[in-house]
Every structure is written in C-alpha cells, then in structure tokens.
Prior knowledge:
Layout: E1 4-7, E2 10-12, E3 18-24, E4 33-39, E5 46-52, E6 56-59, E7 67-72, E8 77-82, E9 91-98, E10 103-105, E11 109-113
Parallel strand pairs: 2-11
Antiparallel strand pairs: 1-3, 3-8, 4-5, 4-9, 5-6, 7-8, 9-10, 9-11
Amino acid sequence: QVQLVESGGGLVQPGGSLRLSCAASRSIFSIYAMGWYRQAPGKQRELVAAIISGSRTNYADSVKGRFTISRDNAKNTVYLQMNSLKPEDTAVYYCNAVFLDLEVWGQGTVVTVSS
Length: 115
C-alpha cells in the first residue's frame, strides 16, 4: 500500500511563506501526476497545483505567481512553495498522487493564514 506523508503546514501571517512537503512511500519517477489540493471550511476541495507527466505544471488561477510546485525524484517528494500568503489560502492541504495503477491521498496538513 502506498502512503503519502505531508508536512510543513502551520500558522503564518499574511504575506508570509510556507513550504509543504509530500513524501511518497513508493518511487515517483514514472508517476502520472502528483499535486496539491485544498479544502477550506464549508467549501469543496479544489486543485491548487499539480505536476503532470513529469514536468508539465498546472496551477489554480488564485495561486499563480505565488505558489510553486516542484519534485525531487531521489527523495520521492513533491513540494509546494507558498509565498505571499493570504487569509483566503487558509485550508487543509492534501497531497494527491496518481500512479498508473492507483490513486492515493495524504492525510492533510493545516495551513492557517492569520494575523
């Protein structure tokens, strides 16, 4: 069974930065897609950023220019660098991995942007 372990969430002031990490228990070298979703209270889960087929990236319009997704195949880890954070970025952030044979979700990490 493949597991995704997220880390890096926390409380940050508006304008601050955080880096989320998602470590997979299986090689991500040939993974189809890996990314981050978020769910704010009372809202549906939404895509934040994803890496598809190795190098193509996709971002939600609300985070373009502020968030950057990257991967380290040697560490089987995907990162989400979040800069210029806003209160509306507050949510539970979930890592998602789509392998050729299964899809896996992480347990979520909480990001709170507040002064």
